[in-house]
Amino acid sequence: MEKYIDAAVEQFRTLLNEQIARERKMEQDKRYTDYKKLDKIIIGICGGDGIGPIISAESERLLQFILKDEIAAGKIELRTIEGLTIENRIAHNQAIPDDVLAEIKACNVILKAPTTTLKGGTLESANVAMRRELDLYANVRPVAVPELGIDWTFFRENTEGEYVLGSRGVEIPDTLAFDFKVTTNEGTKRIARAAFEYAKNNGKTNVAIVTKANIMKKTDGKFSELCHEVAKDYPGITAEDWYIDIMTANLVNERVRSNFQVILLPNLYGDIITDEAAQIQGGVGTAGSANIGDVYAMFEAIHGSAPRMIETGRGAYANPTSMFKATEMLLRHIGFTEKADKLNKALHICTEVDKKYVITGHDDGATCSQFGDYLMATIEQL
């Protein structure tokens, strides 16, 4: 037993030093990408696993259509990045193989399809690794259902919490296992600033800070305290504390949910509650996700790789809507607001108004490519 304890103590020392160094690096790193000043914006497209290559190919086709003039002028370059499959990651025993990561870092923004994350073992999630390697600290997910009075924007801290060391916990065989949760000052303050800046720039008056600080007193307590410290720089915007269990209930409480505007959370809580919110909007297949850093940004579908669809031969019927939503967010992020607005309007027409082609995931509905053709034809008519 003592050898396990000694090993755990030494491992904790290593992890603690790594996290202290990471926090100091955040303080010192002042790099920032201004897309308006780039001669050419490089968009990397990662196919992933399962239905990922199918819906990412359709999204690439959509980008080629929307940005055809900019691509022809050399202002935009689309790069297909392969090698993020589970087979390749297992073969290299790396969440993102080194050569694939180098390709990703050679781009300015990434459009990423779902990747498979194994249960158990030590192979880290590709998503978690990418967020860390590119320092994509803000996971931003908008959810809007106008007829229900819902207009939420979630700001989930993306590089800390339980996920930053999720594959590096300690296990004593036949006895116990435990993982770590990390909250740093700089990591918390920068996600708080992002949320409050968004509120200020978009006419929002309320930011809900969601934790379980009554139980997780050190980590969640620090998160709440630092968010309120940042809030002092934003007069006119109310900062309210909510516990995650109550907030989860409030999202389905029709009497109060329309009061929420910007919702700021640590990593794990944000991961869970944004899927609940997407379900209220119409399902996880209807929402995209933005992962924003100061240098890089990555946009993705929020659903999984759906291996059963491939196993049952239904891959051609995969729903690309979440990837199309992510594409809209990408366009908006790099400065093509009008094109993003047009795509958003066309998606609304295709999925909520006209519904000429409906994706069901089966052969009684449209294929992925049929829906893509339908969407592009709708854009042309706007």
Layout: helices, strands, pairs:
Blueprint: H1 2-28, E1 41-46, H2 52-66, H3 68-72, E2 76-81, H4 86-92, H5 98-105, E3 109-112, H6 126-133, E4 138-145, E5 150-157, E6 170-172, E7 176-178, H7 185-201, E8 206-211, H8 219-231, E9 238-243, H9 244-250, E10 262-265, H10 267-281, E11 288-292, E12 297-301, H11 307-311, H12 321-333, H13 337-353, H14 368-381
Helix pairs in contact: 2-14, 7-8, 12-13, 13-14
Low-confidence stretches: none
Major beta sheet, specifics?
A: 10 strands, mixed
Strand order of the largest sheet: 2-1-3-12-11-4-5-10-8-9
Instruction: Give the DSSP E fraction (strand runs of 2 or more residues).
Output: 15-25%
CATH homologous superfamily caption of the largest domain: Isopropylmalate Dehydrogenase
Structural summary, described in words:
With 382 residues, the protein is of the alpha/beta class. It contains 14 helices and twelve strands. It folds into two domains: 31-136 and 293-382, Isopropylmalate Dehydrogenase (3-Layer(aba) Sandwich), CATH 3.40.718; 141-281, Isopropylmalate Dehydrogenase (3-Layer(aba) Sandwich). Helix content is 45%, strand content 17%. Helix 12 (321-333) runs antiparallel to helix 13 and helix 13 (337-353) crosses helix 14. The chain is globular, with a radius of gyration of 21 Å. The protein starts with a helix and ends with a helix. The mean pLDDT is 94.
